[in-house]
Amino acid sequence: MDVTLVGNKNDVNRTFCMKQNTGTQTRFWPKGSYCIYQNQGCPKDMKSGAVYWDDENDYNRNINGGFLPYGTQDQNTAIYYCCQTDGNWYDSIELPVSEPFHLLTSSSTDTPKCQMVKWALSYLEYIVFDTEDTNNRDAQKDVHLFLDGEKKYYCYYEECHRTMTGLSGSFRSHKAAVNEMDPRSQYCSWLITLAETYNVSLSFKELTIPSCKDTFLRIYDGSNNTAPLLGTYCGSNASTEIVVLSSTNNLYIVSNSGSYARSAKNTFTFHAQYNAENLTEFQPSKLPSVGNNGSSVSKTVTISAISTTPAILPLCCSEGE
Hints:
Keywords: Disulfide bond. The strands form five sheets. Strands 3, 4, 5, 6 and 9 form a five-stranded antiparallel β-sheet that branches. The chain is mainly beta.
């Protein structure tokens, strides 16, 4: 969906991309709390609903064309939705994130919420529709996008994968969401990839991950999360004394900032910096042991990719949780 103001900025122009083929559905929309536009019925496990706009009678310039969501588009507007309500907005779902996209909020939540999507930042947006003032007949049916009076809420997503190729650089965790309109994320990643003659040295100016309950920072010796795991950091083993040295020209870093259901997001913070090193051998120091609560009981100084010591893996967390 794309939205622009037209004319004297009292009118809204909305454009849509609609899937037209009706082949067999082989993948289903994941459980969560969100809506999509309806086109001739809803996918399995999604519920139908609608919103009706009693558009302004004076100077009404409604026009339409092309393929549109199911509904009515004439002097007034009705749009039908398909809504997933079998999950929680704060449990991340997996969707393609290579291109920006919109999901719709759901009236199944008490306040407007953006469904968390793995590897994406979500931005809550709204449009104010000034509909008919006299004998207004605005209406809603069943589950639909979240609305608050004249405000209709939408969610915009863009990926939070970042790739860095410079010989040095820095990156940090995304800012914590303070209010409803702030961007939110849960799973994000950073890939450092250099020329083959270099290794990567990674250190931290700041690393604060107080809990191992559902938050962590993971570092892999390669270009993705199938590479050897160098360490998982949370609790007391999340220290600025950590220095990570790769055995290849790549390091892949994954963060999980935790569930918004449990706590405010102002406790998970890190600020990392890296440098290219012309090194082929490292002298690794011993990795810290892990206590029963998943936290370290000794200090980490330097972690080398050629160490034979097992990676730190808290008992609390797996990447899919």
